[in-house]
């Protein structure tokens, strides 16, 4: 059974009323706050139904997978109902782990709740035998990232839990300051609840209380460029520069997205449906939704010119001359971001 994270609460309430939980729950995703909250909700529901003992297994590269069978088949000294948590941070159990997981889900013990925590799996891993077996046997909770566009609404919803609200400008301010970091957003929302009473928060109150706790992620550049969000792309570049992100990595991310766009543009121009092109170029998730907009905005000629400019930046990074280019490669990258999001070269 596949569930979105926001549907988990309703599922657990219905299960608690019936007096039983599913034998296996899986949380999968790369958003730490939401994954933690999903796991906490499952544990709380289990405790309310008498699951009194908990054992946690960390399955790293050296994990002995026989411990899973021992933990799930052993008798409890203190409680008839037990929770066994399996945390697989790498998302790849290996051959022994895959076999152990498949064997476990075939016949999970009674009076045992298994909670398995995974990162977001790539398409190939999600289609593997062990992951398919888990998805078939478990309640699989997909913990999706909150993208930048949806972040103000998410923040507004969290403020409402504290009986607080704020105008759109204040929500946008918080979103800008916690770029990509829901844990930081959660902390700032909690701080606002401590500082101010329930009701309307002014922009001045929010700006006075909220710190700049952004976590700039180099891989957030690609969605910003595809969406045509020049302001966000420039903000990300400046944050990455200040945080000391290696310039060659930032340049590679930008150039690789431009190459993918150019390949997609050529393939679509040749008559291939975008759905097929997306599969061939491994474009999925938010990028798959944003790519058609970028293809309409950026013709092949523009993309080729921007890639040539990336080559000049690479020369600057290596200390070589690049005629007609600024000596600061970060400024050049900013110009590429502006040109890419505006739909033209500069």
Uncertain stretches of 5 or more adjacent residues: none
Q: What pattern of helices and strands is seen along the backbone?
A: EHEHEHEHEHHEHEHHEHHHHHHHH
* Class by alpha and beta content: alpha/beta
Shape: globular
Contiguous helical run count: 17
What is the arithmetic mean of pLDDT? 90
* Main beta sheet: 6 strands, parallel
Query: How far is it from the N-terminal to the C-terminal residue, by CA?
Result: 51 Å
Radius of gyration: 24 Å
What would your notes on this structure say?
- This protein is α/β, with parallel strands linked by helices and 346 residues long.
- It has helices at residues 8-18, 32-48, 66-73, 94-106, 123-126, 129-137, 151-161, 168-177, 182-195, 203-209, 221-227, 230-243, 247-269, 274-280, 286-297, 300-317, 329-342, and strands at residues 2-4, 24-28, 51-58, 81-87, 112-118, 139-142, 164-166, 199-201.
- Strands 1-6-2-5-4-3 form a 6-stranded parallel β-sheet, with helices on both faces. Strands 7-8 form a two-stranded parallel ribbon.
- Helix 11 packs across helix 15, helix 12 (230-243) packs antiparallel against helix 17 (329-342) and helix 13 packs antiparallel against helix 16.
- The mean pLDDT is 90.
């Amino acid at each position: 059974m596949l569930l979105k994270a926001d549907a988990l609460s309703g599922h657990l309430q219905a299960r608690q009323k019936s007096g039983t939980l599913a034998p296996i729950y899986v949380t999968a995703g790369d958003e730490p706050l939401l994954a933690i909250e999903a796991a906490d909700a499952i544990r709380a529901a289990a405790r309310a139904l008498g699951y009194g003992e908990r054992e946690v297994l960390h399955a790293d590269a050296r994990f002995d997978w026989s411990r899973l069978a021992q933990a799930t088949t052993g008798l409890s000294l203190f409680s008839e109902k037990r929770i066994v948590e399996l945390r697989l941070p790498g998302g790849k159990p290996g051959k022994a782990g895959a076999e152990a997981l498949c064997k476990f889900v075939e016949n999970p013990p009674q009076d045992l709740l298994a909670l398995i925590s995974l990162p977001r799996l790539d398409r190939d891993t999600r289609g593997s035998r062990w992951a398919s077996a888990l998805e078939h046997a478990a309640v699989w909770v997909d913990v999706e990232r909150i993208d930048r566009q949806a972040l103000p609404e998410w923040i507004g919803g969290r403020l409402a839990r504290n009986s607080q609200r704020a105008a759109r400008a204040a929500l946008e301010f918080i979103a800008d300051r916690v770029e990509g970091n829901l844990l930081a957003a959660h902390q700032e929302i909690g701080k606002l609840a401590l500082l101010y009473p329930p009701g309307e928060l002014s922009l001045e109150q929010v700006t006075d209380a909220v710190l700049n706790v952004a976590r700039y992620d180099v891989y957030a550049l690609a969605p910003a460029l595809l969406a045509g969000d020049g302001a966000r792309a420039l903000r990300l570049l400046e944050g990455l520069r200040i945080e000391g992100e290696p310039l060659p990595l930032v340049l590679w991310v930008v150039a690789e997205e431009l190459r993918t766009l150019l390949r997609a543009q050529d393939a679509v121009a040749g008559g291939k449906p975008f759905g097929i092109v997306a599969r061939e170029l491994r474009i999925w998730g938010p990028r798959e939704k944003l790519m058609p907009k970028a293809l309409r905005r950026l013709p092949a000629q523009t993309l080729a010119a921007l890639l040539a400019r990336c080559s000049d930046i690479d020369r600057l990074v290596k200390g070589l001359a690049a005629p007609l280019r600024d000596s600061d490669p970060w400024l050049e990258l900013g110009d590429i971001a502006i040109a890419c999001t505006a739909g033209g070269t500069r």
